Amino acid sequence: MSQRKRRTHPAPKRPGPAARTTPRLTTPVILLAGVLAVLGVAGLVAYRQRMPRETPSAVAPSFQPLTGRWLRPDGGYVIEIRDSDAAGKLNAAYFNPQPIKVAKAEALQERGTIKVFLELRDVGYPGSTYTLTYDPASDQLKGAYFQAALRQSFDVVFVRLK
Question: Model pTM greater than 0.85?
Fold first, then answer.
């Protein structure tokens, strides 16, 4: 008969279903996560410091005369210019008499003359535009209205509403 060899050491236990399933974090992984977090915060701080600071409702001095409500007497249309930035971007609204979406509103100063461009994008206004010039002597906006649906231009004048 053969003799069986007796084990003197117990067999290693294998983990069962209730064994720990979360991986163990090692020191290098924890250090790497910490370094990445610090770099992320430093990058965010640097980005925020480079962002331009804007003052709310600040009107660029060169476009100050445009601020206000302007009426087109031949139809009751109103342009409201609330403010502008130094680059000439206008915060503007257009009414007929209900609000019409203004897709683009810009002003520029050219040889001492202030010019305004508005693009309308709404139902019945598929890209119609106003190209206007401010006349300081009469305190009026004068220029052309391009009616995109008809593909026609019309001379227009806006007077300031007091």
Answer: no
